Amino acid sequence: MRRALLSVSDKSGLADFARGLIQRGFELVSTGGTARALQEAGLAVTGVAEVTGFPEMMDGRVKTLHPLVHGGILARRSRADDVAAAAAHRIGLIDVVAVNLYPFVAAAANPDTPFDALVEEIDIGGPSLVRAAAKNFADVLVVVSPADYASVLEQLDRSAGPSQEFRFDLARKAFAHTARYDAAIAAALATVTAGPSGFAREAPSMLAPVLPLELRKIRDLRYGENPHQPAALYEGFGGPSGGLVVLQGKELSYTNLLDLDAAVRIVMEFDEPAAVVIKHTNPCGAATGRAAADAYVRARDADSLAAFGGIVGLNRRIDAETAGAIVSTFIEAVAAPGVDEDARAVLAGKPNMRVVIAGGRPQAGAAEGALELRSIVGGVLVQARDVVREAHAPWPGEEGLRVVTRRQPTGEEWRALRFAWRICAHVKSNTVLFTGADRTLAIGAGQMSRVDAVRVARMKAESLGAAGLRGSVAASDAFFPFRDGLDAVAAAGATAVVQPGGSVRDPEVIAAADEQGLAMVFTGRRHFRH
Fold it and tell me: The whole model's pTM is what?
């Protein structure tokens, strides 16, 4: 009779899987809690202690670490000497090993778990079983996830038995499983300090001493930023890649994905319907509106020339009206939290346009704790994700916000400053942009000085035929180091400014704003985006 060794922490689907194995002629061998769960389900099970002749001991620390277990897993059926050694030592062969490990990750995530209790959640026998079975995948099926139970039973029903491809795929999953487990242990123990009085766990840190990574390739891309650069899309760090689903269109490129990410980041800042058109990761137009269609048209028309061939982001489902507006011009890709059926028919009229389900409406604190990685020569930079939207209070009630000029902003200016500040944080630094209460007017992105950023914004406004930027508000992602930047903003026609403050020349800049009758708000927070 074939044997299956079952020893699992996650008992989801266990009874049905074990029942299926029995129906296919397997004897079940199990340990501790798994054996009890199988017996409670009315299934016959042989305890590991009956196989080894040794009881489970040391509070379960020693159960399966025995030649009568590991010999049965590691014996190569194609090697006569292995089979003879197993027979000589009365080692029964084991054909299926279903093991998942002690819940160390859950224990480590709980700051109240004492250090001694945390150590007891480090599985020893489980990883040994998994690695042994994975090493001998040609003869042993290793199962580390309940999600694979059904496919294992299906493969066992094949007349030729489980395929080598299936066996090898399970082995790869198994080694990845133990690798993640060991990485989690290393990361958790890196936060423990040892001293004469014992061991102490430090408070959880966003930037841990050890940062375990596992990135799984989703697909290869045609190329990277340029045709000579190989590229691929991976997921894994911080969860799946935004639940991104492609509904139609050409294959997504490396730059498409960067632009879609930039688009989703911006519209997620808003509770109200919002839209943005992105070019080269910068917004060329952004707006809020009564509904998705209204917001999109206003964002597109903020810079219709630059919008040609752009990437669109929405924080509402695409309905038929919005779809009609999108297909009225050339757009490379659009991302939204959903697409109505009648809208899909409209979008299908542009078969090459990528339509992607991604993002959605924000929730307070949804991005808190998210990390971002960026490679540099010789290392990796890690930072907390920058989020602008205030979680608890609308402007002007946010903590740290203060008016530093003699003139207070009007109600309409407050609305516009709030809008401008959210957009400004997502433009490449240095940036100065000009907006109304709910739409960008001109964006000066990624310049070497704030004066240059204002010049670029004014040039954009003039090239669009706008009658100047009189009555607008301006936002700067960092402080004005000299008054010349503020003077340039005033000359462009803005009546109010929002900026972080913090320059040694703040008094000079405030005086310049007062001279020209501007209202100026300091946020106390910089929003560079390199």
Answer: 0.77
